[in-house]
Design a protein that fits this description.
11% strand, 5 strands, five-stranded parallel sheet, Rossmann fold, 8 helices, elongated, 172 residues, alpha/beta
């Protein structure tokens, strides 16, 4: 998705990115961006801050709240470095100062997309997280708070081969 108030830049970005055969959505204000983010799982957002300024940072915050895995790349003018720094603190993936190299931007979009896909793959499904929490709660309720804590700490790490063999030997 491209969120850019300056139509010339937005159209230029779209023309170059269309060559990559990506599906591109557009917004030039927070209300449009909010509608799109609410309806669709966006992979990468190009967010222009040059004209949007603080509204652009509000869009970034909204995106990260609604879709934490969506990666945002800031496009900004060199005279507004403070906005870029603030955007990075809000969770932007990267920032580009204009004028910029389109090939470099395309490479960073691909990097951002890859990172999002890796994070989605690593993220535990909501149901699994709920079941883990319920299991730990059952231990705590049964008067075993140490066991509940140990369960929550160990549930996220894979079982080693040594632990598997030890468990098999205990069965015999």
């Amino acid at each position: 998705m491209i969120v850019e108030a300056e139509s010339v830049l937005r159209d230029n970005l779209a023309r170059h990115l269309a060559r990559e055969q990506w599906r591109i959505l557009f917004a030039d204000r927070i209300t449009e961006a909010k509608k799109i983010v609410k309806r669709q799982n966006i992979d990468v957002v190009l967010l222009g801050l040059t004209l949007l300024k603080r509204e652009g940072l509000a869009i970034l915050a909204m995106i990260k709240k609604a879709r934490p895995l969506t990666e945002v790349i800031i496009i900004n003018g060199s005279n507004q470095i403070a906005l870029s720094i603030e955007g990075m603190k809000l969770g932007a993936f990267d920032d580009f100062m204009g004028p910029f190299n389109m090939d470099a931007l395309i490479n960073r979009i691909q990097d951002a997309w890859q990172q999002k896909k890796q994070r989605e793959k690593a993220r535990k499904p909501l149901l699994r997280r709920c079941l883990d929490t319920l299991a730990a709660g059952a231990f705590a309720e049964a008067g075993e708070p140490e066991m509940a804590l140990a369960y929550l700490q160990n549930v996220h790490k894979p079982i080693s081969q040594t632990e598997k063999k030890g468990a098999e030997n205990e069965k015999d």
